[in-house]
Design brief:
Clc chloride channel; 3 domains; two-stranded antiparallel ribbon
C-alpha cells in the first residue's frame, strides 16, 4: 500500500510539474516576444533621438537640458507618477507592495520621458526604463488573464528578466538579475524556469529585430591568476564596494534634498540643470547622456580622468533627482569602468582588465547582485574573466553593506553573522543592522577593551 501511495504521489507531482512547465513556457515565450519587441522599439527611438539632438550646436547643445528635464518632470507628475526615478526601483516596489500591479500608463510615459531626458543630455541609462516598460506590459497581461497575486508577481519578474536581457544582450544575467534584485539573502526560485525562458526569447527577438549589442573580450589582457594578482583583485573589489557606497549615499542625499526643496517641479529641473551645466563647465560634457562611447573607450584602454567615476556619479544623481527619467545601470557601467581604470593606473596594473572588472564590480555592489554581475562578465567579457569577476563582485557586494540603489529590496538575511538585522523581510532602507561582536573572539576582545577605556 505504501509503495502504491508513493507511486501516486510521484505521478501527481510530475503531472503538476509538467502542467507548470507547459503553462510557464507559453507565458514566458509570450512575454519574451512582447518585451523584446517593445525594448527594441524603445532603444531604436532613443538612439534616433540622441542622433537628432547631437546635431545641435552652440548654446542649444546645452539649453535643451533644462527644457528636457522640466518636460520629463511634468509628464511624470501629471500622467504617471510611478514612472519617476530610475525604473527598476519602482518595479521592485510594485512586486513587494502591490503584488506586481503596474499602471499601463507607465509604459508610454516612461519611454517618452527617458528619451527626452537622455536626448537632452541628462545622465541616465536604458536598463531601468526597459525593465519598467517590460514589467508594465507583463503586469497588464497578468491583469487581462485574471492571475492571482503570486502568478502576477511571477509574470512581472519575467518581464524584468526579458527587459534586462533585451537591452544589454545578456539573457542569463538578465534572468538572474530579475531573481536577485528583489531580495538580499534570498532568491525567488519559484520563477527561475520562466525567468530564464523569457530572457532568452526577448534577447533573440531583439536580435531578430536588428538590435545591436556590444561585447568586450578581454582574455588577452587578463593577468595570470597568481597569489599577488588575487590580492590585487580583492583590493579592487574593496575599492569598487566603496565606489558603490559613494554612489548610493550621494543618490540618497540628492533625492532627499530635491524632495524637501520647496519649489515647483520646473524650478527643481532648472536648479538641477544649472548644477549639471556648472559641473560640465568644470569637467567637460563627455559625461552627458548614456556615455557609452566613453565606456567603450575606457574598456579599450583609452585615457580617462582619475575622477571620471565621481563626475559621472554627480551627473547621474543630479539628473534623476531633479526630475529626469532613466536607469542607473548604464551609468554604473561607466562609473565602474572608469573607477577600475583609475585603480589600475594608480597602482601600475593592467588598465583594460581592471576597467572590465569595475564594470561588473560596481554593479554588484550598487544593486546587491553579485551572481548576475559575475554571469554578465562571462556574457560581455568572455569566460576567462569569470574568476576575477566573481572575486570583485562578491567583495564589492560585502563592502557596500546593507544598502542599495534599489531601496525597496527586502532584507531577508544579513551579509555577515556578525551583524543582526532589526527585522527580516523589511525594506533595506527601513532596516537597521546591529553589530554582534560577541560572536567573534577577536571583535569581542576589541569591544571589551574599548568599553574599559571609556
Amino acid at each position: 500500500m505504501g509503495k502504491d501511495n508513493r507511486g501516486i504521489r510521484i505521478f501527481l507531482e510530475e503531472f503538476v510539474l509538467c502542467y507548470a512547465v507547459i503553462k510557464w513556457t507559453a507565458l514566458a515565450v509570450l512575454s519574451g516576444l512582447v518585451v523584446g519587441g517593445a525594448v527594441s522599439l524603445f532603444v531604436e527611438l532613443l538612439e534616433f533621438s540622441i542622433g537628432v539632438a547631437g546635431k545641435l550646436t552652440g548654446i542649444w547643445h546645452y539649453a535643451i537640458l533644462p527644457l528636457g528635464l522640466a518636460a520629463s518632470a511634468l509628464m511624470v507628475h501629471y500622467l504617471a507618477p510611478d514612472a519617476s526615478g530610475h525604473g527598476t526601483e519602482k518595479v521592485v516596489e510594485a512586486v513587494h507592495e502591490r503584488a506586481g500591479q503596474i499602471d499601463v500608463k507607465v509604459v508610454p510615459v516612461k519611454m517618452i520621458t527617458t528619451i527626452v531626458t537622455v536626448a537632452a543630455g541628462g545622465s541616465a541609462g536604458k536598463e531601468g526604463p526597459a525593465t519598467q516598460i517590460a514589467a508594465g506590459l507583463t503586469s497588464t497581461l497578468a491583469k487581462l488573464l485574471k492571475f492571482n497575486d503570486l502568478d502576477k508577481k511571477k509574470l512581472v519578474v519575467c518581464g524584468v528578466s526579458a527587459g534586462f536581457a533585451a537591452v544589454f544582450g545578456t539573457p542569463v544575467a538578465g534572468a538572474v538579475f530579475a531573481l536577485e534584485v528583489l531580495y538580499i539573502g534570498q532568491i525567488f526560485y519559484d520563477v527561475l524556469f520562466a525567468s530564464f525562458l523569457s530572457g532568452v526569447v526577448a534577447w533573440r527577438t531583439a536580435l531578430l529585430l536588428g538590435l545591436k549589442y556590444s561585447f568586450f573580450p578581454v582574455a588577452e589582457h587578463l593577468p595570470l591568476f597568481s597569489p599577488q594578482n588575487f590580492l590585487w583583485t580583492l583590493a579592487a573589489g574593496v575599492f569598487f564596494g566603496l565606489v558603490s557606497l559613494c554612489f548610493i549615499e550621494i543618490m540618497n542625499f540628492s533625492e532627499k534634498w530635491f524632495h524637501d526643496l520647496k519649489a515647483p517641479l520646473t524650478a527643481k529641473a532648472v536648479i538641477g540643470s544649472a548644477l549639471i551645466l556648472a559641473l560640465t563647465w568644470c569637467v567637460g560634457d563627455s559625461y552627458f547622456g548614456l556615455s557609452e562611447a566613453g565606456m567603450v573607450s575606457v574598456l579599450h584602454g583609452g585615457r580617462v580622468s582619475p575622477w571620471a567615476w565621481l563626475w559621472k556619479i554627480l551627473m547621474t544623481v543630479l539628473t534623476l533627482s531633479c526630475g529626469g527619467s532613466g536607469g542607473v545601470v548604464t551609468p554604473i557601467f561607466f562609473i565602474g569602468a572608469s573607477a577600475g581604470a583609475a585603480f589600475a593606473s594608480f597602482f601600475g596594473l593592467k588598465t583594460i582588465a581592471y576597467a572590465s572588472w569595475g564594470l561588473v564590480g560596481v554593479l554588484a555592489g550598487s544593486a546587491n547582485a553579485p551572481l548576475a554581475s559575475t554571469i554578465m562578465a562571462v556574457e560581455l567579457l568572455g569566460g576567462q574573466a569569470a574568476p576575477f569577476a566573481a572575486v570583485v563582485s562578491v567583495t564589492s557586494f560585502m563592502i557596500v553593506g546593507h544598502r542599495s540603489v534599489y531601496p525597496s529590496q527586502l532584507l531577508q538575511r544579513s551579509k555577515s553573522s556578525l551583524l543582526d538585522v532589526s527585522e527580516k523581510g523589511q525594506r533595506i532602507d527601513r532596516n537597521l543592522t546591529v553589530p554582534t561582536p560577541e560572536r567573534s573572539p577577536v571583535l569581542g576582545h576589541l569591544s571589551l577593551r574599548m568599553k574599559r577605556k571609556k
